[in-house]
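Protein modeling request. Please complete all fields; requests missing the sequence field cannot be processed.
Requester role: graduate student
Desired output: 3D structure, token encoding
Chains: 1
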Amino acid sequence: MNEFLLVKDAGFHPLGFVMGSSIYHIGLQKRRWSRSQELDKLTSAMYSARELAINRMEEEAEALGADGVVGVRLDVNYYEFGADTAEFIAMGTAIKAEDGRSYRNVEGKPFTSDLSGQAFWTLRRVGHVPLGLVMGTCVYHIAHRGIGQAISQIGRNTELPNYTQALYDARELAMTRMQDEANRLRATGIVEVKLVEKSHMWGSHTIEFLALGTAVASAEGRRDSARPRPSSPSTIERRCRERDV
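Delivered output (245 residues):
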């Protein structure tokens, strides 16, 4: 009830629950026991499956005539009918502005956001609007320690630089890809960022890093960027001279 009232107070009303789903087969990829590396095939599968689910959720919002979707949740479920098969689900609440303005993003789609009703209300109170749910993912294999290295470190307090660097690189890849998505939406920032780490079914040395947040921009700045830019004085003067001639 509180979420509903805050969305209403922000000038929007809910239209309905929307959802998208994709059951995806995740392929196999070779990895080297002693080498840290991104597993491109698995990264692509995890990203593509979520994109399918999000796009289908957006289509449901489109059918309702929504301006956006708030409270988006992304889940992954595994079923017994396939060890390498997973269901990717995106769900949220479609909303529409009560002032009649369009709040769709630069791609002409309803914005998506994982913001709660309270966070959405706060964002609107400071004159900003959500542009879209942005994400970056990276599936990374972290090299095992050699037997000699493991034995030499028994009982010692010491950093494991190969692990540190591998995890740092993987997180950085996920964060950079999330920022790239925000740039495509012409965002000025990303709020409510979450960095989730899961091993899924791949074991302890292969981890997916998922960076997720809501791209935002100033409401005035967004409208200004959508308007055609006025001609510069020099251009206007040139046109006047040409007309007079």
